[in-house]
Specification:
Number of strands: 2
Number of helices: 5
Strand order of the largest sheet: 1-2
Strand content: 5-15%
Distance between the termini: 21 Å
Radius of gyration: 13 Å
Order of helices and strands: EEHHHHH
Amino acid sequence: MATLTYDLHTVDVNDEGYLTDPHQWSLELAHEMAREMGIELTDTHIAVLNFLRERYLAEQPLTIRRIGKSGIVTIKEFYGLFPGGPLKVSSKIAGIPKPASCV
């Protein structure tokens, strides 16, 4: 198991950089991770991250379509918030494993 150190946090990650323990996640860590990816988190970003975490912890499958139906953002807005593979990027920042629907 590898570790990554952000400004204030050291976390356990897998070989793709996803947290192996979602309980190590915090909003401060999310801001640090996003900053390293060139994303400045807004309230909308945080609402999406919280939605992802809630669904993951409830063991519900995560898909881009489900996020579009969440009422938080449209699919187009989701792509704008998390460029470069929105579900993979947002899941990483949310501290959850890469969804099975992502390649």
